[in-house]
Amino acid sequence: MVTQRDIARELGVAVSTVSRSLSDVPGIPEATKERVRQAAERLGYRRDAHAASLRTGRSGTISLVVGAIDNPFFAELAHHVETQANRLGLLLMIANGQEDPAAQERVALSMLEQRVDGMILVPVGPPTSGLQELVAQAPTVAVDRLLPGADVDSVLVDPREAVRELAEHLRDAGYRRPAVISGPDATSTGAGRARVVSEELEAAGWSGFPVLSSAHDASQAQEVAERLLADCQPDVLICGGNVITLGALRAMKRLGVDVGADVGVATFDDLPWFDLMSPALTSISNDIPRMAAETVRLLLQRIENPNGAVQQVIHEASLSLRESTCGSRP
User: Are 242 and 267 in contact (CB under 8 A)?
Assistant: First the structure.
């Protein structure tokens, strides 16, 4: 069985360097970490979880509690977090927060009862008092959304520049009656995206446009979109997430509204097949692989140093202009 000592001998480095590199501990040059990972793979090294647990008092397992497992954004996030965990020899447990604070508290408690070393959390709204107690007991990183009232590390996305580009594009393309369907106000992304979109639309010259909210539920979003289309007759819809966009597209199909030609559509949370649709959907996207890597890095740092300063990493969103908002307006 290949050990860390074998890897160290192969590379001519200290065993501690191998151990710290495989655990992605800060302070080791990235080039050294990569050499160690490549040597570990080449030699067929496999982490002995039981021995490591006895030696360190840790399980080698981390958890991810997503907002809703049926949301494609969170499914992709889970995939990339798992990729990072596997690269570091860690086991990832995934649970569904069901976009419900009480459910999220229950599954977070279940994860901690499994003796995970740390937890990654996509907050579903203001935390329950029970969840606040749980995150105070275990290393925790919030990703995509803020966890109000909790002193935890976080990885977030700032959509401001992408939304500004979108608003200016819609103005220059001749749209006159924008409408917004945001995510739930209870989440930082729902409220934050609605605020940023409203501010940037106003800066681009619009006023009095409707802003309605919907849960990340396609049926509810469809009802909201049908009401908007009937009552306000917008010529472009800006949707606060891909599940909301699904509901809006269903509403437009049911009402016989031609996407792009009759009403433009732009959405947050790009998906790999949005550019394959007809028309392809204009989207604001996040760098999910980078978010996942930063999240796992922060969690491992928090596990190593529970009392370190709280960190917040913010990435910029990007805009992909596509056919759904690029047709000529009358």
Answer: yes
Side-chain half-sphere CA neighbours of 235 within 13 A:
15
Domain identity same for 172 and 133: no
Helix (H, G, I), strand (E, B) or coil at 237: strand
Q: Do 298 and 313 touch, CB atoms closer than 8 A?
A: yes
The DSSP 8-state label assigned to residue 259 in this structure reads B
Give CA–CA dist 150/135, Å, rounded. Answer: 8
Alpha helices by DSSP H, the chain: 4-11, 15-22, 30-43, 49-56, 72-87, 101-113, 129-137, 160-172, 188-203, 218-231, 242-255, 288-304
Q: Which domain holds residue 161?
A: 157-284+317-323
pTM of the model: 0.82
Phi, psi of 120 (to 5 degrees): -105, 130
Say how far apart CA 67 and CA 122 lie, in whole Å. Answer: 5
pLDDT in tens, the chain (330 residues): 788 888 989 899 888 888 888 877 777 888 898 898 889 888 888 766 545 543 455 678 999 999 999 999 999 999 999 999 998 889 999 999 999 999 999 999 998 888 899 999 999 988 898 999 999 889 999 999 999 888 999 999 999 999 999 999 999 999 999 999 999 999 999 999 999 999 999 999 999 999 999 999 999 999 999 999 999 999 999 999 999 999 999 999 999 999 999 999 999 999 999 999 999 999 999 999 999 999 999 999 999 999 999 999 999 999 999 999 987 555
* Residue 206's CATH number: 3.40.50.2300
- Same domain flag for 260 and 302: no
Distance CA 17, CA 4 (A): 10
